[in-house]
């Protein structure tokens, strides 16, 4: 509950400031007053609260009102974020010109835009980028990497793992929204399909159909999933039921041996408040119980390597960051998670791969952070030849 209160406080503070900024810009550009100013203020207040209203309507079972309010709220969120990112540099430019005018005493107003020109440029540019971002969000890229390991028996051949992450299926999903990801996964022909959290983020219009599409993907060695934080923002039982209906083995602080070829370890997201021990202890305990020397695949939603886990797994697959999803939001995200998206070799041994994510959270938009599936080929490496005797 405390985490939710903190989130709501930050949301209202940061997002509310963006709305106030837009209101001030609109009032000054169009000289809003009286009824016009009141109507614009009321509309902005509604849009500020729309994502929260949509979630509340969903929890109360009002599906279609929740869908409408959520779509309005998140489309506006994407627009307002882009508008702010474009408008702030324009404001900085005008401040710079104004300072130059004061210092030089020259009339530099010819280098300035009017208030209406400035806000019009920001609105048109934001709308254009928003439309492009909706298009980019459907262009699922395939990122292929190969890792060689002596831990796989040579007879095993290549094992192909396909990772999806952060699909966020829910009220923002629509018929066909899953198709690009399903197409890319099927083309990759995985032996194993893994989901590294935030698979589902609310009620779906056609939940059974979506689950069936994922379940029907052929995977000779199975499907495995872990929870993300958003699975715990809805009813956990609902998220678990959907994940299992989609054909995944849900690993909640558990491990499984896959036909003796490799061991997959999955840990719950810290958003699960029912855990009795801290996350690092649980993870270290799971890794410490594995006998023998198998290839260890660690599934973990957030891209953080616990100190007690370093050097005890071969590959960690994570998501969560979306690479910011909408440029330039990736810059503040990198402050929280310094390891950017992609493959990283760890000093203690092993690798971590951080996915950009396959879907979208909030606005159905991606800008300079295209969605992806990751195709990881684990290839047996023969042991080194014995050293000749002296």
Quick structural summary:
With 390 residues, the chain is α/β, with parallel strands linked by helices. It has 9 helices and 12 strands. Helix 1 (2-30) packs antiparallel against helix 2 (34-59) and helix 2 (34-59) crosses helix 3.
Helix and strand topology:
Elements lengths: L1 H29 L3 H26 L3 H42 L10 H22 L4 E9 L9 E6 L14 H10 L3 E5 L10 H9 L7 E4 L9 H10 L3 E2 L3 E5 L3 E5 L12 H10 L6 E5 L15 E4 L11 H7 L5 E4 L5 E4 L17 E9 L10
Parallel strand pairs: 1-12, 2-3, 3-4, 4-5, 7-8, 8-9, 9-11
Antiparallel strand pairs: 2-12, 6-7, 10-11
Helix pairs in contact: 1-2, 2-3, 3-4
Keywords, please?
9 helices, alpha/beta, 6-stranded mixed beta sheet, 390 residues, 12 strands
Describe this structure in words.
- The mean pLDDT is 92.
- Strand 3 (192-196), helix 6 and strand 4 (223-226) form a beta-alpha-beta unit.
- The chain contains nine helices and twelve strands.
- With 390 residues, it is an alpha/beta fold.
- The protein is globular, with a radius of gyration of 24 Å.
- Helix 1 (2-30) runs antiparallel to helix 2 and helix 2 (34-59) crosses helix 3.
- The strands form two sheets. The protein has a six-stranded mixed sheet with strand order 1-12-2-3-4-5, covered by helices on one side. Strands 6-7-8-9-11-10 form a six-stranded mixed sheet, with no helix packed on it.
- Helices cover 42% and strands 16% of the residues.
- It starts with a helix and ends in a 10-residue tail after the last strand.
- The chain has helices spanning 2-30, 34-59, 63-104, 115-136, 179-188, 207-215, 236-245, 279-288, 330-336; strands at 141-149, 159-164, 192-196, 223-226, 249-250, 254-258, 262-266, 295-299, 315-318, 342-345, 351-354, 372-380.
